[in-house]
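ok so for the tutorial part 2 we go from a plain amino acid sequence to predicted structure tokens. step 1 is just haveing the sequence, like this:
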Amino acid sequence: MKYKDWSSFESYVARLLKANLTKNSGAMNDDADLKDELCLIECKFRSSDTLTVDHNILSKVNDQSLKWNKDSWILAYANNRGAYAILPIEFFADIYNHYKESIKDNG
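step 2 — the prediction. this is what the tokens look like for a chain of 107 residues:
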């Protein structure tokens, strides 16, 4: 596992997605943990074997992305078993379709 707590997970996701860390994100401006030119990323870490996603978190991240004029958002979620990305299905469809096109073009 590449992370042991919330802070190391947040740093890991920032490096992986080449996104900027937001200092004091929860305390200031109702801001997300990470941002880049396209997307807003909220990171959650639970030191347990279960993951539960509260609809309030998804609504909050969606509202933040609108506030910051981002095209979309990602909720990066991790626990003792692994890390996952939760994102709007339309955003996933765009990513997936671009990926399929790149394989077809290179294959």
